[in-house]
Design a protein that fits this description.
The chain starts with a strand and ends in a 14-residue tail after the last strand. The chain is about 30% helix and about 25% strand. The longest helix has 13 residues, at about 235-250. It has about 425 residues and is an alpha/beta fold. The structure holds uridine-diphosphate-N-acetylglucosamine. The site of uridine-diphosphate-N-acetylglucosamine has 23 residues, from helix 1, helix 5 and helix 6.
Length: about 425
């Protein structure tokens, strides 16, 4: 099993580049199901979840080419022949976002079988809101042998008010609505940039969508969609992780190929903590920290609030700040697995319910630690970058699900980090949060 060996103490200096957003690429790949034509997606990140989605689409009969070059990362998908509209358990259990194929399969084939995702480390993660919405659009959904089966001759437009804001739920139902008969009105939608990215792609395919990026989205269904070439947004969570890396190591880092407009809540927190943040251009940000860092509270919220996917990394940062920071997790019920490991490295964090209290400014010392999910792994790398000595991070396959060659990128700006083991050796461990 791969491990990272990290020696702390170096400030990060130079320019680091952000890859395409995994959480945009996943729904956009699923959207290829909606057309018989070829779909080309650019700026695809080279991470394990994308490979899992390739396997998922291929197992249904799609032709998927995935190419990673120096200049271009792209995939070309043809779903002309979808012989087997089934998302098998073997794949769904390794990546919960597999449930994103439910809406598009149903819209395109009139039938879909999708294995029910089990629980995962950060909580129950139900998909009840996806199912409720599809039923309102006329699907009949049954459950047998661990699979959900959804059927309908043709989906029809409906008025759907989400009980709770859900990112993949909004995306899944949006993909169902674009081929439904009539108009669908969605309320209380997720406003994440990944939803907007998917809506932009669908619109280029011929869909009629109004209001993506706001809580209310209106869709007028069409009979068919055509092929498209679409460029995936930069990954705002990877960008946020690098910004924290610059600040925590007291470095001077330019984070390039990002979209500052998607990073508002993160940038203002970094400034509150005492980092200096300069937006250099429409796609690059400089972060510097030389003085003392100050404690600041966060409370995770749906976009445009502070993202839950940055909570663990932020917590690593405030272990290095003077004073006490409260970190409240509002989105997921069990997303503090990194706390124990950070404490093993010398942090002083206590958890009560959904709130973690971080008492800074701790002297972190290197330790052998275990990655428990994607973003928890990132927080441990950040802590290891400032810990005294050499840390060993086990189970970095969690990291490989969502960060493209992070060790090479960090080494390029001065970090001492190396991988032991084989990159991308096959894994069967269940996937997690995001
Ligand atoms: C997506 C992101 C993930 C991020 C999360 C919240 C992808 C692939 N993953 O996950 O990185 O952490 O948004 O920003 O884009 N819920 C229900 N019923 C449902 C659906 C969700 O109760 O049918 C609850 C969830 O348990 C959770 C909350 O709603 O408490 C938000 O979850 P949701 O936005 O759906 O997360 P994902 O889309 O799975």
């Amino acid at each position: 099993m791969d491990k990272f060996v990290v020696r702390g103490g170096n400030p990060l200096l130079g320019t680091i580049r952000v890859s395409g957003a995994k959480n945009s690429a996943l729904p956009c790949m699923a959207a290829a199901i909606l057309t018989e034509d070829e779909v080309t997606l650019e700026n695809i990140p080279q991470v394990r979840d994308i490979e899992t989605e390739r396997k998922l689409l291929a197992s249904m009969g799609a032709e998927v080419e995935l190419g990673y070059g120096r200049a271009q990362h792209r995939t070309t998908i043809s779903c002309r022949n979808l012989s087997d509209p089934v998302a098998k358990y073997e794949i769904v259990k390794t990546m919960r976002a597999s449930s994103l194929v439910l809406g598009p399969l149903l819209a395109r084939c009139g039938v879909a079988r999708v294995a029910m995702p089990g629980g995962c480390a950060i909580g129950g993660r139900p998909i009840d809101l996806h199912l409720k919405g599809l039923e309102k659009m006329g699907a009949v959904i049954t459950q047998e042998h661990g699979y959900l089966e959804a059927k309908t001759p043709r989906l029809r437009g409906a008025h759907i008010v989400f009980d709770k804001i859900t990112v993949t739920g909004t995306e899944d139902l949006l993909m169902a609505a674009v081929l439904a008969e009539g108009e669908t009105l969605f309320e209380n939608c997720a406003r994440e940039p990944e939803v907007t990215d998917l809506a932009a792609m669908l619109t280029s395919m011929g869909a009629h969508i109004e209001g993506a990026g706001t809580p209310t989205i209106k869709v007028r269904g069409v009979a068919r969609l055509h092929g498209v070439r679409h460029r995936i947004n930069p990954d705002r969570i990877e960008a946020g992780t690098f910004l924290v890396a610059g600040a925590i190591t007291r470095g001077d880092l330019i984070v390039a190929n990002c979209n500052p407009a998607h990073l508002g809540a993160i940038l203002s927190k970094l400034e509150e903590v005492g980092a200096r943040v300069d937006i250099l251009s429409s796609d690059s940000i400089r972060v510097r920290a030389d003085g003392a860092l100050k404690a600041a509270d966060i409370s995770t919220q749906e976009y445009p609030g502070f993202p839950t996917d940055m909570q663990a990394q932020y917590m690593a940062l405030v272990t290095q700040a003077e004073g006490v920071s409260q970190v409240r997790e509002n989105i997921f019920e069990n997303r503090f697995m990194h706390v124990q490991e950070l404490n093993r490295m010398g942090a002083n964090i206590s958890v009560e319910g959904r709130t973690a209290t971080v008492r800074g400014h701790s002297h972190l010392s290197a330790a052998a630690v275990m990655c428990s999910d994607l973003r928890a792994s990132a927080s441990l790398v950040l802590a290891a970058l400032v810990a005294d000595g050499e840390s060993i991070l086990d189970r970095v396959y969690h990291m490989d699900r969502g960060y493209e060659r992070i060790e090479e990128k960090l080494r390029g700006v001065g970090a001492q980090i190396r991988r032991m083991g084989n990159v991308f050796a096959p894994r069967e461990e269940p996937g997690n949060a995001d």
